[in-house]
Amino acid sequence: MSDYRLQALARLARLAPGLVLKTDPADLEHYGRDWTRRWTPAPLAVALPASVEDVQAVLRWACADGVAVVPSGGRTGLSGGAVAAKGELVLSLERMNRALDFDPVDRLLTVQAGMPLEAVQRTAADHGLLYPVDFAARGSCAIGGNIATNAGGIRVIRYGNTREWVAGLKVVTAQGEVLELNRGLVKNASGYDLRHLFIGSEGTLGVIVEATLRLTDPPPPSQVMLLAVPELDALMRVFGAFRSHLRLQAFEFLNDRGATHVVAHGAQPPFAEVSPYYVVTEFDAASDDDQNAALAVFEQCLEQGWVSDGVIAQSQAQAAALWRLREGITEALAPRKPYKNDISVRISAIPAFMHAMQDLFERDYPGFDVVWFGHIGDGNLHINVLAPDGMAQDAFIARCEQVTKALSEALVRVGGSISAEHGIGLVKKPYLSGTRSDAEIALMRAVRAALDPAGILNPGKLFD
């Protein structure tokens, strides 16, 4: 590290005495990357503030010294949005991880941005309420990162995305100013709602330091069912039948390749016979009528040939085992370093889109192991591609970039999005124009320039 950089870090330490600064190579590697694992981390240092004032001091210093800053939560993203590979300062909010306030009348929970999602959920439960956004990375992702990417997850069909549950935000701008946005109001017609500008902004407009979250009633008792689906076109028919007769909390699917990898990783085999597709669904089951309705819709699907087998959980342990087939996919695939795509289409377009993509993979990418899974109920599909044995990583990524280009072109035709819930980051940046018009991108650039004229916040992410 140059003397100038050392002196700059020394100045930062004096400006923010409560700040923890890390420069150990192992720390730089750990904090400088996200789950993509495609870029070699090379941050200047890692700053861990303990207060809003620390964050203000860091950003004022960064502006004065011209140092780029990468805001960092749990770094569970899949788009390269939290990568620091060009000498940036990583600003990790992990020490700012406490619940600050609970208002039982308004049902609002205010937390620091570094609080893990699972801790937010537990805190809400301690007050007899629910924070409903949920996904498999709940134990390691941070609420600030969830907000910065407008995370969705497995219960969007019932509760919507993160955006619906953010009642207020405290944000530190690139210049070190504090913005308090909306303050938990239900109605606020006093001009632009800047809160929503920062939701999904991927750390490019400001650093989210606190969030005021709406809570809701816990859901009624539920049951989990696993279904074997014999063909792609039947997936939507099953979804339509279940949605018409039951109050769904989740409706998730995976293909046989996903199930194979999770079973190899320790999960129980779903059925004696392998099925091309599986559905994990959870639905309200507070009464015998709900139970009977679930059995009736299953029998209807069985008679129609839309499902070939099914099982309903008889205990919490069985429900967890069924959910593991879906939620264990990312962990099971991680050692193989999959190439990931996270796309969104209208629900009605799913079958045609998946057929087109399957034809593409079979024709142009033989030997590639392709794992499909996702949220049928909101049109969000995850595509994980595994390299054939012996293929070099660089060659594999180059081939997969061709896949992503084909995906992007297909998404343009159906009006979809190249990113459903992980942001654009570095990975999807070349394909932003497939989702956003030139006029939209120009306005986004103008907003970014207005809020961060020095260009220090997460440069290179979203767009150059």
TrEMBL record:
<dbReference type="InterPro" id="IPR051264">
    <property type="entry name" value="FAD-oxidored/transferase_4"/>
</dbReference>
<comment type="similarity">
    <text>Belongs to the FAD-binding oxidoreductase/transferase type 4 family.</text>
</comment>
<dbReference type="InterPro" id="IPR016171">
    <property type="entry name" value="Vanillyl_alc_oxidase_C-sub2"/>
</dbReference>
<dbReference type="InterPro" id="IPR016169">
    <property type="entry name" value="FAD-bd_PCMH_sub2"/>
</dbReference>
<dbReference type="InterPro" id="IPR006094">
    <property type="entry name" value="Oxid_FAD_bind_N"/>
</dbReference>
<dbReference type="Pfam" id="PF01565">
    <property type="entry name" value="FAD_binding_4"/>
</dbReference>
<dbReference type="InterPro" id="IPR036318">
    <property type="entry name" value="FAD-bd_PCMH-like_sf"/>
</dbReference>
<keyword id="KW-0560">Oxidoreductase</keyword>
<keyword id="KW-0285">Flavoprotein</keyword>
<dbReference type="GO" id="GO:0071949">
    <property type="term" value="F:FAD binding"/>
</dbReference>
<feature type="domain" description="FAD-binding PCMH-type">
    <location>
        <begin position="39"/>
        <end position="218"/>
    </location>
</feature>
<keyword id="KW-0274">FAD</keyword>
<dbReference type="InterPro" id="IPR004113">
    <property type="entry name" value="FAD-bd_oxidored_4_C"/>
</dbReference>
<dbReference type="GO" id="GO:0022904">
    <property type="term" value="P:respiratory electron transport chain"/>
</dbReference>
<dbReference type="InterPro" id="IPR016164">
    <property type="entry name" value="FAD-linked_Oxase-like_C"/>
</dbReference>
<dbReference type="InterPro" id="IPR016166">
    <property type="entry name" value="FAD-bd_PCMH"/>
</dbReference>
<protein>
    <submittedName>
        <fullName>FAD/FMN-containing dehydrogenase</fullName>
    </submittedName>
</protein>
<dbReference type="GO" id="GO:0016491">
    <property type="term" value="F:oxidoreductase activity"/>
</dbReference>
<dbReference type="Pfam" id="PF02913">
    <property type="entry name" value="FAD-oxidase_C"/>
</dbReference>
